[in-house]
Design brief:
alpha/beta, Rossmann fold, seven-stranded parallel beta sheet, 7 strands
Amino acid sequence: MNRLSGKNIIITGATSGIGKAAAYQLGEFGANLFLTGRREERLVEIKNELENKYPDSEIYTFPFDVTDRVACQDFVKSIDSDIDVLINNAGLALGKDAVYELDQEDVDQMFAVNVQGLLSLTRLISPQMKARNAGHIINIGSVAGHESYAGGVVYCATKHAVKAITESTKKDLHGTGVRVSMVSPGMVETEFSNVRFKGDDEKAESVYKGFRALTAEDIAEIIVFIANRPEHVNIMDTIIYPVSQSSSTMVYRDE
């Protein structure tokens, strides 16, 4: 059953990976999409492809950085329609340094994007959902928000924060019809590792060698499934591993 046709859905970080895959799958369901990201050229390309493929969907693009609070406010003010679903997807990891070797700029950026950016849009969108007694907030977390690992002190901290924000947001909205969910993927082969290792393609590719990792499309299917449940059903979290992964650090490789 399609419960998403005509729904107004925001996706942050929609220029690549999970956000982009979710846009295409939600477009197939006939949703109206408000896509945000820092790379305007990619947004325009995605918009054109989606409009050609799914003419029943309305596609809007907004190039800005979620760490810019004024830009977040301007974005929300520019939308005339009520938002049915907010997908807080924008996020990143930078480096795998131990706590005693951290780069402060990396620390600041991870918290700014993964935590503050997510909170900015949730703070701005949730009041209208509460007032309408309807809506759905879906945060993209990580298995790193459930299990910490060496070399991930900051990234794990930010994703633990996303888990806490998700749980607290649901409790803040207790008694309303607003749903709050989280998706916690394991190893997904996207640009994630290229960003983490700052363009070192060889190091990024080595992360996924010897096993079949999850794809962005795999996670997008979970997002769509969660968003498409009946209004009385609230899936709080999903933990998704590739079959070769059993924890944050346990990965069986053939080579």
